[in-house]
Structures are given as structure tokens and as C-alpha cells.
Amino acid sequence: MIRTKKIFNWIxxxxxxxxxxxxxxxxxxxxxxLDYKNFSVYYHSNDINTEELKxxxxxxxxxxxxxxxFKKGTSQxxxxxxxxxxxxxxxxxxxxxxxxNYPISQNIFISKSSISQNYILRNGxxxxxxxxxxxxxxxxxxxLLENKLGLLKYKLLPSWKNEGYCDFIxxxxxxxxxxxxxxxxxxxxxxxxxxxxxxxxxxxxxYLFEERKVTLEKFLDEDFDxxxxxxxxxxxxxxx
Length: 240
What we know:
This protein folds into two domains: 29-149, Collagenase ColT, N-terminal domain (Glutaredoxin); 158-240, no CATH class.
């Protein structure tokens, strides 16, 4: 009995280690690769039009240029999954997301997408569509933030700053803009709807950069009165 338990424990540890290695080094599982500008894109299908993929990456780069963190020569690996099943394998804890970027390895795994039409879908019923170029930019900013802050400080960065800045640079959220502003005006927190939280984080970040003209250093290092910012958002967007 003890021997059997040890064998199962050993097998479990080997499986966990194998999975971690696949997450960190998935390159051999993807048949094709495109190196273009700052991106190395890995994909399966030979039917992918690389010129269309380059157009998507051009749009991502144009978004990233909005951030002072972006520097030419920085490499970002992107892995385009065939569909929800493969994405779930690579993103077990984030299977409902559009994409996932793992710290340290900084490998980005992309959910079901259309390169020719520049959109990406997540496995959810609502708020389930964004531009592929925007999501690539969003996830790449996670890598840029980690590079700037270091792993520990990056992991301690509040979610509203981390996700808000990424969506601010991507210049979009999956939550409908008009509906999101209405929710803010009605004081609806929607705590169970991650897409709304990301939208609100972006609006807060946009306010700080465009209205208060804060620097990136100040944004990352200082604490802010979110209640005060929320009240200012209402003054700006909500009819009295």
C-alpha cells in the first residue's frame, strides 16, 4: 500500500513537472513560426496568411508605441491555439480568458481567433470578443511591466493598475463602452463580472494619464484615492 502510494506520488510529480516544462517550452508543439519585428509567433495551421498576421502585429505595435515601456528589439513569444480545448490545456486556471501570459517565461497563449478578421474569442457567453491586435498588445504590456518592475514588485502591483494599464494601452475592453459608463453612473459594481472590472480599471487609468497627466513612474509607485477618481469619472461622464 505504501509502495503504491509512493508510485502515485512520483507519477503525479512527474506529470506536474512535465506540464510546467510544456508551459515554459511549448515551441516544439507548434509546427510553424513567424519572426516579425518584436514578435515571434508560433502556430499550427499552414493555411494562416502570414501577410495578414503581419498586419495584425503592425496594429499591436502601433498600440504598444503609446507606452514608454515599449522598446524596439524586445522579443515577445506568442502561441496561437487552434481552439478552446488547446487553450484550456495551456491555461487551466484562465480557460475563460482571451489569452494568458505566464510570468518569468512570458509566453503568451492566445485563445480561439481569426487573423484575417483580427478578432479573438473567449469561451464565455457574454463580453467574449475583442480585437486580436488589442489582446496581443494587452498581454505584451504585462511582459513589459514585469521587465520594468521585476517579478516580485510586478506580482504585488494592484490589479487595477496592472490590468488597467494594459487595457489603456490596448485602447479597448471587452465590456461595452456605453453600458460600462452607465454602470459607473449607476454605481453598479458588478463584482462578479471581470470584464466590467477591467473596463473600469481602464477608465481609471485613462483618467489619471489624460486628465491628471500623471507620469508612468507616479502611476506605478503612488497610491491613489479610487473613490475620489470614481466621483470625478461620474462628473465627467454622467449627466446631472
